[in-house]
Amino acid sequence: MAPKLPKRSYTPLLRGRQVQGQQLAAALDEPAQPSPNSGLLQISHNNYEVQSQLLVRNRPTFPERDRSTATMLIILSNGGQRQVNFPLPRESCTVHDLLVRFGVRFNRNTTIIQCVDHNRDGIDFVVRVGFSVSRLLSQQVAAAGEPPHHSPVEQISTNNYAVHSHHIRTHRTRRAIAEGNGNLAKMLVLQASGEKRLITFTLPRVTCTVKDLLERVGVPFDSTTTLKCVEHRDPNVDFVVGVGFPGNESARQLRSRANESLAAIDYSSMTLDPEL
Fold first, then answer.
1. Which residue spans within 40-150 are E strands per DSSP?
2. Nearest to 167, CA basis, from 184, 150, 154, 180
3. How far is CA 63 from CA 24, 66, 72, 255, in A?
């Protein structure tokens, strides 16, 4: 168990544009995962271990800083940010512990938390709380000077995704798909049990969620079931949902499973009534 952190002062909650605008922009442009040999070790889908010795060792030589303390920048999805200084424990502590210590509200199971090294401007690392994965990726693409790609599916919690009707319609137009109804979408559901279903459904006016669709189809899952959803860009499939596969199943592996099923026509088909 990480040692209890003593009370320490920190800067008040500030709106993003009111302080260190360039610093905040630079922090948002960084990769979404800690670098190799980092003082940050990901220990769960949304938590990290802060390893004191490595964190200090990775600092620039100048300017010299107090080796007994560290500084993190917390960036909230509502636009707020905090720069906090805290005493480093002898060995390690967790980002969850630090967020709780400094009064940041989050759900340990569902809030998306990203943690990356910074090592400049007197800040050791940056913690982003509540950002969607697709938003972080869009920020990285924008930093590279490329137009952002709007995925038809967006992760909105650890185990759920929003399906954006407008983006699906836009992608279908770009792929010049003229056949069929433009208000229809298709998702391929792959279950760890081996069952595979191609579901055709009427797009809602704005959005729906993957869990909503799975419930309507009768796919069994609960709060512990791992759900993975990826865009597919196949002429006949808009996105793929993996149900019950290991948590470390990558998007590439899920797409590979989908391609195998589609090539072999190894799936059942089902059309949902337009109730959404």
1. 40-44, 47-51, 69-76, 80-87, 92-94, 113-120, 123-129
2. 150
3. 21, 10, 17, 47
What single letter denotes the amino acid at residue 115? C
Task: Tally the residues of the chain.
Answer: 276
In degrees and rounded to multiples of 5, residue 48 shows phi and psi of: -135, 150
Q: Could you give the number of structural domains in the chain?
A: 2
Rounded CA Rg of the chain: 22
Element (H, E) at 170: helix 165-174
Residue 6 lies in a domain: no
pLDDT 10s digits, 149-191: 567 888 777 788 888 887 788 776 655 454 456 688 899 999 9
Q: Which residues pair with 43 in a beta bridge?
A: none
Alpha-carbon gap, residue 178 to 265, rounded angstroms: 22
Determine the residue type at 219. Answer: V
Give the separation between CA 3 and CA 90, rounded to whole angstroms: 8
Q: Each residue of 41-70: pLDDT tens digit?
A: 888 878 899 999 989 888 887 778 899 999
Please indicate, yes or no, if residue 109 is contained in any of the structural domains: yes
Residue 93 domain flag = yes
Burial class (CB in 10 A: 0-12, 13-18, 19+), 1: exposed
Residue 228: beta bridge partners?
A: 242
pTM: 0.49
Cβ proximity of 255 and 240 under 8 Å: yes
Q: Are residues 33 and 71 in the same domain?
A: yes
Note down the domain range covering 183. 150-271
